[in-house]
Design goal:
2 helices; 16-stranded mixed sheet; mainly beta
Length: about 325
């Protein structure tokens, strides 16, 4: 049986905890700060699984994983704080170049939440090249610029990253998702917020039930779906599938669509920008407005105020556009200086 190289259990104020803000009296605000460091080399992995609290990861020129945990229990005496922390241990295990942090209450998260208003904050430093698997049931997650595979999950907060040289999987049940840039593939999903992505170097799947979707650029295929907001896709180099039930869609293709693309909305307009030299087949139809086109057409198969089918340039992949709540516009993409 393999024995972990390092095992720490942190009940209450053990292992270098610092008690701060301990006021005299029966009802007090107590804060406990715990710090640990684990020697690692770049290319390792951090796994953090918490039942509450925010997580901030700062990459840098370091040869260690540094962990600072701040736990605060407002309106509690020192004895009450000690009791609550004893029921919320933080287990840290290092196995080679992998560091695992597990923080869950002994009596179950729901029961513990009802009895204690314990606030937790995790601040972690890691080497710039490091894989991250971060999960919390009650707070936001923030990650700086990093090289590695990143997985983020929270049931109650927003997810924010800098530039990731690798892939990103991000999911939240109650907040927004924002990433400055990702070189690999992206899977982003939220049930209650917007998704804003910067420059994407791979395929993107973005889905939200309650917000807008914005992508600054994408090299790979894009799949964007929302039930309650607008979609704006810029500088697309691959195929796009965009669908919303409650907003408009704007898509700017940097070149001719490489594969069939579909843009569909039930509650807004559709605007597509293409280079004047673009080649593709267009199938556009609206039941709530008109179709307008300012690009050169080589073949017209069907055309009316609310419908257009034809080819731009030499034809090619099909660009399917559908809306029942607005107009459709095909416009020339302004040339880059």
């Amino acid at each position: 049986m393999h024995t972990p190289s390092l095992l720490h259990r942190l009940p209450g104020a053990a292992l270098g905890a610092v008690m701060a803000s301990l006021l005299s009296g029966a009802a007090l605000a107590s804060e406990v700060v715990t710090r640990q460091e684990f020697p690692v080399t770049p290319g390792g992995r951090l796994i953090l699984d918490a039942d509450r609290g925010s997580i901030t990861v700062t990459p840098g020129a370091t040869q260690a994983v540094g962990l600072t945990v701040t736990r605060e229990l407002k309106g509690a005496s020192a004895a009450k704080t000690e009791e609550a922390l004893a029921q919320h241990p933080i287990d840290c295990v290092q196995d080679g170049n992998t560091v695992r942090i597990h923080a869950h209450s002994r009596e179950g998260s729901l029961a513990f939440w009802r009895r204690n208003s314990l606030r937790v904050r995790y601040e972690v430093t890691v080497p710039r090249k490091f894989d991250l698997q971060l999960k919390t049931a009650g707070g936001g997650i923030t990650v700086g610029d990093i090289t590695g595979q990143v997985e983020l999950s929270t049931a109650g907060g927003s997810l924010t990253t800098g530039t990731i040289d690798g892939s990103l999987k991000a999911r939240t049940s109650g907040g927004s998702i924002r990433a400055d840039g990702v070189t690999g593939n992206v899977e982003a999903g939220t049930a209650g917020g917007s998704i804003h992505l910067g420059d994407m170097g791979g395929d993107v799947h973005a889905e939200t039930s309650g917000g807008s979707i914005r992508i600054a650029s994408a090299v790979g295929a894009v799949d964007a779906e929302t039930a309650g907001g607008s979609i704006e896709l810029s500088r697309l180099s691959g195929a796009a599938h965009a669908e919303t039930s409650g907003g408009s869609i704007t898509a700017a293709f940097a070149a001719s669509p490489s594969k069939d693309s579909v843009l569909e909305t039930s509650g807004g307009s559709i605007t597509v920008l293409l280079p004047e030299s673009a080649s593709c087949a267009v199938d556009a139809r609206t039941s709530g407005g008109s179709v307008s086109n300012e690009l050169p057409v080589t073949t017209r198969r069907r055309e009316s105020k609310s419908e257009f089918q034809g080819d731009l340039g030499s034809g090619g992949s099909t660009l399917k556009l559908r809306t029942s709540g607005g107009g459709i516009r095909l416009k020339a993409l302004a040339a880059t200086p």
